[in-house]
Design brief:
alpha/beta, single chain, 137 residues, 4-stranded parallel sheet
């Protein structure tokens, strides 16, 4: 039942990870539109999820079947357990399967995440330490 990364089929070319409260109606839509306009198949939860779908499982499958993930790191991104789970999954696939991870810092200084200060520190402190270790690598 296990399949290698070489035998998996790509369902989406890009998986878009973001927190909706910060970016869904503004920044993320500005990323999504040109990608779709050029024919790139993007996993975007609002377009792809159907009623009753389990968000974490659906995202995990989308990450597994895509070649690249765009992570929109915004002020509240780390406050979302589902976003951190997505990020952990993306980093794991990057390390084991060569998945490409493209972080975009939206109204966030990258040093806040790198040095874990401000809201990122508070949010990461509230989550599982092993997830934090994996993301920081």
């Amino acid at each position: 039942m296990a399949s290698s990364s070489s035998s998996r089929q790509t369902k989406h070319q890009v998986c878009l990870s973001f927190t909706g409260e910060d970016t869904r109606l503004n920044f993320t839509s500005h990323i999504l539109k040109p990608l779709k306009d050029t024919g790139i198949n993007v996993f975007f939860d609002e377009d792809t999820l159907e009623k009753g779908d389990q968000l974490s499982l659906t995202f995990s499958q989308a990450i597994a079947t895509s070649t690249l993930s765009i992570i929109v790191l915004s002020v509240n991104y780390a406050s979302s357990k589902s976003c951190l789970a997505e990020l952990s999954n993306i980093v794991d696939r990057k390390d084991t399967e060569g998945h490409i991870a493209l972080p975009i810092f939206y109204r966030v200084d990258p040093s806040r995440l790198r040095n874990l200060t401000g809201r990122f520190k508070t949010s990461f402190d509230d989550h599982e330490p092993e997830k934090l270790d994996q993301v920081q690598q």
